[in-house]
User: Which sequence fits this backbone?
């Protein structure tokens, strides 16, 4: 397909035209399931968030196999034991599933014996020893690069294919430019993944094998920061309060009550999180992954999650629900090392932020990271790379431009420029140039980041 | 336009359809001018390169104003004095030019008085003093981060607009992913520009005001590495031989004879170069920029360059021709600090490299940087972001995928994977996972880069 890109474009056009026919049916299903979803969640979560999360997963699945939405709407009420089992970790495949897997696009990448339970890789139980030995032997790669400043690797990525929605790649480009800027200012390295390392863990589960591989390959990395491609930094001055997490291994945006008491599927968000390199990380990845394998396992696990979690619509198992379920059911095992952060937006739901940017500019300043100036604006449910031409995606794209420009203004101000408006790509000067450029101080003190970063984190 | 992206897509579709009508006429003109070009250059440069360079500029200009190709074919023989003057630095505008500028897309960004000669910014003559004072006062920002290891900022970028050719953004994304990988391995920071800082210097001249701004804002940066968005790293292991340039300020791929003796417009390439931060850099930027301002100045200067340089086709002044002209006419002033490198591919023309990747894999290994394993493969003339659906761009896209995968294989091998073929996005394992990941050494020793980087540069 890549051998003939113009051909590929043409065929994509045809595919698109074909998909359009499905949109009508899907809108109908959307309404049905959204209603079911809100009724289920309204009491507990923020309905607005639920709607977005539900849209999110519907988009996601629609792109994969639209017609299956129907099947699931029909099978919701079932309480399938097999589902419960598979969720417990035993993957009981049957002829049908194997055929299903073999017709899959990436099927020939599939080495794994369907009779064996899925594993992310060889069991490792002495990673802390291996790692600290390595760190001793390689003093030129300290896992801390300053006081309270761990070495951090930000990991993100996108599909190796061009987006179904052609404009989507432009937003992926803006999203990585935005991350490059934040990471340059805060001394963070970036790994952008475009490869599917494990065909079974495609979709929202792909991050798990990738993260494990990177932790094991980079003992010098203390914290791995996963960030979805549809999340952007909107506070370029905010430094993560690393010292706050010195006794924790896993930091996600969320609320203890919503996860542990309500088992609410949006009690936390897995679109932007910090994971400390160590044996504990390998262990929780192993405990997190069993619901991931594509096909029967993921579908049956989805039923269990929908049954057990508050407000979750019907769809195959996703990594976020699985994490809520894991923490809620095994709090004693993991809870003491998990920090659910809500003092700032490690993840911030775009729906409640994007319309307030002007108000933030009016009243506040970068560096706060919270509702006054969010660190991250996450376009949950927008899937700009997917083909879905309804109004909400149109709104998404407009708002993604605003979020990008909102963040980009903090970079441009360093050099004396700003966007003409949050809606404009165009820039204008905010100060005249001088013959003594080094006397100019940017208000945010972002010009000399590494230093600033450490200073901020220790203040 | 960005306020309504779907609307924008529709309107782009219409524009595209409209442009298609022009392709036929253009192919005709293409042939005419390509012939003229080769006859002019064949004797001196590599005809193959000339053809690509000529295609390059034709694409470039076609996208801007196709019909003008004709005018210029007609006016080639003219030897216009006004052109010579404008090239000498005096910009003589007239009513017509000003009107022309005012109808320009970015016209309202234009603050500059057309009666004043163009300037990149306030005159600075003591930058070396200012900078060394700053470096003394900020020891936490050394301009050298290791023995023979200067602090380097790689600067690249692309238009703030989505590509006219929708698949183009996907190639920009792959291109920046490729740069992120090389720069992470070699301890280089990245600045990705998406803003037009100076409307007058749009197009191939936009890099000049950007580079000046970055040099003045980042005194800690010793070398700025400019790289076009259509250039990709194909040798992830090659470290630039920094010590070789200790007495030089400006490094470009090129040949002394072709620049100084032949005045050949492709005697050097400005798509990938190294510029040392200092007063000398500000001075050469000032000497380089006078042919840049859009409109009459750039057009007249183009005539001078075509008249004075070997093998140059007819089109408005471009930054590369202007640099050849500057060095050829003022060698005594600049030559002693300019290093024209051809021992490795700081820039490598794709046409002579991409078909040899399999042969390179067969016979050589990364780290050589030259014809055996090129550091950079530059897709001169491909303009994947521009709308141009002829065969050569189809070939470009296919070859850009091959170049990306060729470079990406060197990253994937670190983690035990490789692309199934240079034509495939898909990856496969090249070794089994182990319980002792730290005992695995990647053949290229790229796993722990900063160290490697310094080691290579001093070997």
Assistant:
């Amino acid at each position: 397909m890549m051998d003939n890109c113009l051909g590929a474009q043409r065929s994509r056009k045809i595919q698109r035209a074909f998909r359009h026919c499905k949109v009508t049916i899907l809108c109908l299903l959307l309404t049905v399931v959204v209603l079911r979803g809100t009724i289920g969640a309204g009491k507990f979560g923020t309905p607005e968030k639920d709607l977005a999360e539900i849209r999110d997963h519907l988009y996601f699945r629609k792109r994969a196999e639209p017609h299956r939405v129907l099947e699931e709407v029909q099978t919701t009420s079932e309480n399938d034991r097999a589902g419960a089992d598979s969720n417990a970790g035993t993957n009981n495949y049957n002829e049908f599933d194997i055929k299903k897997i073999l017709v899959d696009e990436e099927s020939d990448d599939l080495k794994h014996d369907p009779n064996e339970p899925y594993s992310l890789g060889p069991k490792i139980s002495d990673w802390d020893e291996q790692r600290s030995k390595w760190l001793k032997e390689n003093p030129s790669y300290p896992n801390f690069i300053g006081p309270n400043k761990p070495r951090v690797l930000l990991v993100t990525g996108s599909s190796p294919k061009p987006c179904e929605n052609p404009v989507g790649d432009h937003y992926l480009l803006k999203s990585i430019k935005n991350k490059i800027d934040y990471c340059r200012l805060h001394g963070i390295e970036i790994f952008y993944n475009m490869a599917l390392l494990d065909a079974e863990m495609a979709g929202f589960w792909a991050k798990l094998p990738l993260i494990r591989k990177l932790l094991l390959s980079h003992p010098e990395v203390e914290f791995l920061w996963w960030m979805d491609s549809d999340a952007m930094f909107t506070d370029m001055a905010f430094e993560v309060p690393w010292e706050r997490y010195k006794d924790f291994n896993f930091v996600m945006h969320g609320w203890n009550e919503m996860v542990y008491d309500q088992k609410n599927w949006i009690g936390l968000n897995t679109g932007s999180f910090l994971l400390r390199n160590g044996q504990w990380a390998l262990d929780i990845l192993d405990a997190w992954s069993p619901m991931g394998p594509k096909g029967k396992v993921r579908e049956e696990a989805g039923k269990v999650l929908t049954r057990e979690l508050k407000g979750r619509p019907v769809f195959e198992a996703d990594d976020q629900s699985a994490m809520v379920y894991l923490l809620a059911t095994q709090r004693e095992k993991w809870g003491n090392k998990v920090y659910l952060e809500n003092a700032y937006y490690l993840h911030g739901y775009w729906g409640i932020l994007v319309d307030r940017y002007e108000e933030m500019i009016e009243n506040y300043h970068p560096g706060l990271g919270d509702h006054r100036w969010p660190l991250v604006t996450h376009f949950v449910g927008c899937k700009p790379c997917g083909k879905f031409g309804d109004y909400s995606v149109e709104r998404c794209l407009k708002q993604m431009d605003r979020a990008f420009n909102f963040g980009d203004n903090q970079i441009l101000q360093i050099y004396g420029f700003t966007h003409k408006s949050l809606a404009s790509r165009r820039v204008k000067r905010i100060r005249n140039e001088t013959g003594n450029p080094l006397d100019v101080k940017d208000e945010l003190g972002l010009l000399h980041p590494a230093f600033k970063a450490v200073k901020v984190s220790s203040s």
In short: The longest strand of chain B covers residues 268-276. Chain B has 16 helices and twelve strands. Residues 5-41 of chain B form the longest helix (37 residues). The two ends of chain B are 53 Å apart (CA to CA).
